[in-house]
């Protein structure tokens, strides 16, 4: 966590007494009020995303309602650089954050993980995008539903396992009525028009939710490069065909830099050739982490939505040998390059070694951080779909990360099963996985690695 507390900006909303539009207007104004203000035709651009564990500022949306003549309150912790809801504080004062124990690094100090992910599929359910969209358009929005959600979340206490369906629905509702409405005029107008009774978003508006970042990038790209910026086909497919269409939907722009024209032309040509532009997204894939020391600690990747642990080892576990690739344990979800960059952080490194102590003999932060740039105006930014190696400096020496920015990636889960003849088998060795893509030839990820002194006992039903 940051040594200095991250500043928080309060935005108060008494749902029974205040107007919805005034709350959204104040929230938008405070989000736009950052040290480097910018706008595209009157649409403010959010603060640049840097993706440390915490944003430059938290927006603390303090929502209050009334239940049985008693005031109920919650606080939503919203990032100022992308307007993502990260967690909430119940009336008890306890913070709850999206994520999973053992898989996620907290962004909110002292929070409890909800054991639930932040995406709509996790919150409203659905095994496909079509089903998720159907569940979102059925979701009831408006004043009474906002009050109901605040009342329920105000008394929330984390039980074993994931939150129940009502809690997840409450969070999804508030994300749409607060975060998405702050981002987009189209959403806030729909919610406000039915505020006194009920409103629902349309299927087309769900497409807006899923493409707000791309609309932001397109507006910034057209401003920067004019007609040299190629309008994305994905936006044409949701009837956002030009700048005017995008401006009619968005109010706040994600600070998502557009790739330079030459690089964009290459990406578009590649997507057209593969005929699957609508499938892919820009994502970061971490293939390997190598250290020139036995690595005891944690490596995590922050993309603005999650802080995913990709490696963890403590003194009780077999450690990597020097100059060896470690076995990655994550991420559990694809790493988004939505903001044009993400951050890899090495921390909790064993501080007992020489070099990890200050002059006064006190333990110091032995870890390090690396910001991965996906693209920018700088011609030095490497081409996408190319394996890259970067070093993270730590007090004990460099940690080398091999990664690639994939321009047209889809998320998939792989599982490796060992076909064992006998129960109670002990196994050791190395299992790696690699891509058939020519550009990634020779790059592999280690899924399993144990020597003969550290065998793993497995049974036939474990696989």
UniProtKB/TrEMBL annotation:
Q: Among its keywords, does the record have Signal?
A: no
What is catalysed by this protein? Endohydrolysis of the N-glycosidic bond at one specific adenosine on the 28S rRNA
Ranges where the DUF6598 domain occurs: 284-460
SUPFAM superfamilies per the UniProt record, alphabetical = Ribosome inactivating proteins (RIP)
Tell me the domain of life.
Eukaryota
Listed under GO biological process in this entry are: defense response; negative regulation of translation
Q: Which GO terms describe its molecular function?
A: rRNA N-glycosylase activity; toxin activity
- Entry keyword annotation includes Hydrolase: yes
Q: Name the UniProt key words of this record, in alphabetical order.
A: Hydrolase, Plant defense, Protein synthesis inhibitor, Toxin
Similarity-based family: Belongs to the ribosome-inactivating protein family.
Instruction: From the Swiss-Prot or TrEMBL record, give the protein name.
Output: DUF6598 domain-containing protein
What is the scientific name of the source organism?
Urochloa decumbens
């Amino acid at each position: 966590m940051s040594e200095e507390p991250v500043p928080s900006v309060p935005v108060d909303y008494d749902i029974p007494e205040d107007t919805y539009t005034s709350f959204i207007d104040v929230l938008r104004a405070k989000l736009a009020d950052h040290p480097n203000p910018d706008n595209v035709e009157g649409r403010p651009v959010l603060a640049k995303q840097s993706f440390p564990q915490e944003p430059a500022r938290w927006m603390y949306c303090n929502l209050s309602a009334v239940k049985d003549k008693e005031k109920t309150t919650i606080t939503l912790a919203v990032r100022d650089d992308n307007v993502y809801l990260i967690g909430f504080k119940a009336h008890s004062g306890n913070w709850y954050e999206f994520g999973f124990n053992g898989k996620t690094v907290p962004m909110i100090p002292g929070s409890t993980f909800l054991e639930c992910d932040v995406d709509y599929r996790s919150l409203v359910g659905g095994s496909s995008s079509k089903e998720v969209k159907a569940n979102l358009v059925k979701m009831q929005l408006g004043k009474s539903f906002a009050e109901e959600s605040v009342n329920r979340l105000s008394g929330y206490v984390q039980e074993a396992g994931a939150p129940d369906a009502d809690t997840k629905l409450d969070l999804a509702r508030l994300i749409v009525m607060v975060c998405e409405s702050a981002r987009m005029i189209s959403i806030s107008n729909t919610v406000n028009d039915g505020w006194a009774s009920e409103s629902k978003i349309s299927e087309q508006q769900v497409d807006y939710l899923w493409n707000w970042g791309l609309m932001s990038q397109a507006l910034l790209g057209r401003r920067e490069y004019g007609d040299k910026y190629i309008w994305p086909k994905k936006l044409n497919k949701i009837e956002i065909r030009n700048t005017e269409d995008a401006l009619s939907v968005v109010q706040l722009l994600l600070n998502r830099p557009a790739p330079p024209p030459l690089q964009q032309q290459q990406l578009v040509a590649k997507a057209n050739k593969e005929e699957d532009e609508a499938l892919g997204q820009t994502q970061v894939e971490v293939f390997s982490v190598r250290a020139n020391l036995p690595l005891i600690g944690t490596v995590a990747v922050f993309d603005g939505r999650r802080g995913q642990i990709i490696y963890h080892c403590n003194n009780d576990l077999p450690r990597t040998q020097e100059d060896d690739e470690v076995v990655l344990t994550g991420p559990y979800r694809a790493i988004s390059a939505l903001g044009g960059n993400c951050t890899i952080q090495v921390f909790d490194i064993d501080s007992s070694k020489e070099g990890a102590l200050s002059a006064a003999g006190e333990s110091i932060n032995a870890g390090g951080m690396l910001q991965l740039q996906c693209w920018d105006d700088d011609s030095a930014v490497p081409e996408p779909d190319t394996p890259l190696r970067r070093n993270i400096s730590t007090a004990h020496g460099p940690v080398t990360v091999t990664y690639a920015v994939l321009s047209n990636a889809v998320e998939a889960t792989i599982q490796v099963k060992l076909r064992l003849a006998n129960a109670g088998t002990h196994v050791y060795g190395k299992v790696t996985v690699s891509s058939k893509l020519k550009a990634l030839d020779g790059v592999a990820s280690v899924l399993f690695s144990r020597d003969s002194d550290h065998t793993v006992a497995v049974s036939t039903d474990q696989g």
